[in-house]
């Protein structure tokens, strides 16, 4: 079994197919690093340098740190770095400077605690050979002997306390820190949301850590099962724009291929043309259905008014059939149970009951039935590929078709 990590687990939760590309197929991304990741790395290495200097009794000035950040930015920047949002590289560079400045001003002269390690690797033993590893931005020991795990965040999102009280990453790291150092009693979990100049803290009880380990083992087993069945479905979301595999993912590669095309090439691209035609017909179909419904109402009103049950057109006759019927669909659960009981009491239940094919297919898919019966049922069923098309509107129209 591989050594897992928090980011490996999060990748599976975000999108199993992305997980497969990254951790099973080990595909090299042909897309560049995102600017957010690039900026995050530069800020992390600057804060790492800060604490290395402090450890060696050197207290760098803010200007020195910003100069280091700038130097690293220029040394590592390559044109393939991807900017996904509407900003420019210099906006991200300035945001990184702001993160460092906020941190520096808040914690200078950095004597709140003693740094034990930066970029510290910890190993977490979950159970039965299931292992996880993580890298902690900074482990510190406070004056009272308690440990702290510090994590720097450079993103533009500040989560609520409630969410961090349930956060998996630092809590798992706590398990690793407790394993690594013999003198650990209490551990504080500390997140630095640098762009917001906010520090958020949390703690875990032994019971919570035990629960977390169990949940993590369940998730890892789920991932292992997916691996055995090679079942890694794509799960598209807003995060796809940042995915390293958009160019190969079936759910996104067409969009990736056409997004930079000049307008006329875009409109003539076969896939784009087909979708535009489909959308056009779908729209026309909705209009026709709407008109049919209105016409139907007009016909019924006319027939009622004139007392007629058949109307004649140039080439067609239209009969109007109407009768009072008993309707059983749309019953509440209680009513349905009463109906079943009455039919069973009459001894005719099997004459009227029908198999719920959808529920049966789901039960087979989820392995809910006895394996022998499931095997027999599978032999009775005919495999058939089901394909559906789901049309949805893009947030922004491309090519002015709308
Ligand atoms: S582009 Fe989206 S759906 Fe495709 S692999 Fe990446 S995250 Fe998953």
List the helices and strands and how they pair.
Layout: E1 4-5, H1 6-14, H2 16-24, H3 35-55, H4 62-76, H5 89-107, E2 114-127, E3 130-141, E4 147-153, H6 161-164, H7 169-180, E5 187-193, E6 198-202, H8 206-229, H9 253-258, H10 263-268, H11 270-306, E7 310-312, E8 317-319, H12 333-346, H13 349-352, H14 357-365, H15 371-380
Parallel strand pairs: 1-3, 4-5
Antiparallel strand pairs: 2-3, 3-4, 5-6, 7-8
Helix pairs in contact: 1-2, 3-4, 3-5, 4-5
The structure holds iron/sulfur cluster (SF4).
Residues 15, 17-18, 234-236, 239-240, 243, 245-246, 249, 251-252 line the site of iron/sulfur cluster.
Portion of residues in beta strands equals: 5-15%
| Low-pLDDT residue intervals, each spanning 5 or more residues | none
Structural classification:
alpha/beta
| Gyration radius, in Å | 31 Å
The shape is: extended
Distance between the termini: 51 Å
In DSSP terms (H or I, runs of 4 or more residues), the helix count works out at 15
